[in-house]
Amino acid sequence: MPLQMNGVEAWITVDNKVQLAEYEVDVDCERATATCWISGEPGQTFAIRWRELHEEKDISGFVIMDGYELGGRVLQASSHASAIFSRIATSPTSCLPLTFSALPRSAGIGADWKTLGAITLDIHEVQIGEAKLHEGFSSYYRRDEGSPLSSATPFSSTEVSSLGKIASFVFKYRPMDVLRYHSVVPNVVTWESNLHLGDKRRAPESEDNTSDEEETGQAEEYIRRLRPRRPLRAPYYGPQTKRMKI
Fold first, then answer.
1. Helix H or strand E encompassing 177
2. Complete DSSP assignment for 95-139
3. Which of 42, 157, 149, 159 is nearest to 90 (CA)?
4. In 29-117, at which residue ranges do the beta strands (DSSP E only) sit?
5. H helix or E strand, kind and range, residue 218
6. What is the spatial distance between Cα 71 and Cα 136, in angstroms, rounded to a whole number?
7. What whole-number distance in Å separates Cα of residue 239 and Cα of residue 45?
8. For the chain, does the N or the C end have fewer beta carbons within 10 angstroms?
9. Under 8 Å between Cβ of 124 and 165
10. Per residue in 18-64, pLDDT tens?
11. Rounded Cα distance, 104 and 102, in Å
């Protein structure tokens, strides 16, 4: 679910527009800031998306990643779409895709890491000015970005004037194994089974092939053995008496 604050929602997607799950979401209404953890693998491309829920204002989102100001996007009112920020213009005709940084092994999840491993999106209500050619962030080159991508159409930029800040969204990213190590993401134990919903299970067959009739006969014989026997009469060799009516 996207982060929400003051009528604006923001989220991050990766390949095929799949939204990344947010963990340990913290909402500070006094500071108008929503913070969460996301999984970001080094070198993985991503896009930042946001939109105004009521579509009543012209807004602009300004992105800061790892301490670098990357510019932003303008989203006009009643645009019926979300703003997408997925590349950085390094010149009027070249750009770099947004990718997660390869953080040092010492990068934990403590309060000391405020800029490195964090993506901040500041949303402002703006007054839109004129458009001009984008000069690009020529000084922005990261060691893991690779060569810039070329564009046949020059990038343009739009001048805006801030009328006031609406909200801030902070996405703190680490590789999934780091988040699990620090219990930000719970470890999930998977259980594999060849059974599927609706499959019937067969009861284990007994190695004893005795039929029901044989089992019944064996049980009756066992009962007869346990039943106490009547004492047999001793033989009598004396005179026989005859009963007579008187």
1. helix 176-181
2. EEE-B-----TT--SSTT-SSTTEEEEEEEEEEEEEEEE----TT
3. 149
4. 33-39, 47-52, 59-65, 68-75, 83-85, 87-91, 94-97
5. helix 212-226
6. 9
7. 119
8. C
9. yes
10. 999 999 999 999 999 999 999 999 999 999 999 999 888 999 999 99
11. 7
Express each pLDDT in 120-154 by its tens digit.
999 999 998 877 654 555 444 444 455 555 554 55
Here the tokens at position 83 are 């703003």
Instruction: Give the phi and the psi of residue 214 in degrees, each rounded to 5.
Output: -65, -40
Q: Is the pLDDT of residue 208 over 70?
A: no
Residue 105 CB-density burial (10 A; 0-12 exposed, 13-18 middle, 19+ buried): exposed
The verdict on pTM exceeding 0.90 is no
Give me 60's structure tokens.
């602009």
Strand order in the sheet with 3-5: 3-5, 8-13, 47-52, 83-85
Q: Which residue has the tokens 């004396």?
A: 238
61-70, 80-89, 164-173, range with greatest mean pLDDT: 164-173
Cα 12 from Cα 18, distance rounded (Å): 8
In whole angstroms, give the CA distance from residue 220 to residue 214: 10
